[in-house]
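Posted in: Structural Biology > Protein-Ligand Complexes

Title: Requesting predicted complex, pyridoxal-5'-phosphate in pocket

I'd be grateful if someone could produce the 3D structure tokens for the following input. Sequence and ligand are given below.
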Amino acid sequence: MSGHSLASATLEDRAVAIGQQVADAAERAHRDPAGITIVAVSKTFPRERVDAAYDLGFRHFGENRVQEIRQKYETPLPDDADVHLIGPLQTNKVRQAIRVVDRVESVDRDRLIETLAAELPRQERTLRVLVQVNVSGEAQKSGCTPEEAGSLVRMIADVPELTCDGLMTMAPYVDDPETVRPVFAQLREIRDRLQHDTGIALPILSMGMSGDFEVAIAEGATHVRIGRALFGER
Ligand SMILES: *Cc1c(COP(=O)(O)O)cnc(C)c1O
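-- Reply #1 --
Done. Output follows.
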């Protein structure tokens, strides 16, 4: 028999391996593994892969394009599954997006909040969101500055249809995940400060991807967004 290369590993093999790595990372950080949610990033993968992951127990799916979401989830997932929009949201796509997504992780500017606030009552919907912070300051990354995060969180709190319960960040792509540990630590510090200053509960820290989720868990991630390590290369 040939060895178990990553390429030949099944979705189930990878799911088991990642579940174990998440649990191990949690234990090393003296955290309860049950406090960490895996968002299976299914962008570019067909609906059948999402359904297969659902059957393996995944309940959170990350997508980054509204057009793709509309097509892929034309038949909705079961009620206990959530689609997370993790990519940038243009205001002209808001109407379509909120028909299908359960959470937007990428709220990063006041115009977007205003558009959501106008559209949600029309669709008689509520929406959970995260504020995306560009901690590293990389020019090509979306997300607000750490300084802007507070006013966005407060602005969302004034919209009855919106709930902001945490922050999201994307670390730069690097070979050694230890390099980006300070990015994750800073998001946690920003969260702690905002929670203290605003009195708004922000329990969720969505940070860490296939290459760096173990470091993110060590720094307090409650949601890790894992694509390639679960579904294979895109
Ligand atoms: C694609 C993507 C991920 C997942 O990245 P992988 O390297 O495939 O795990 C996580 N977060 C965001 C915002 C993404 O766009």
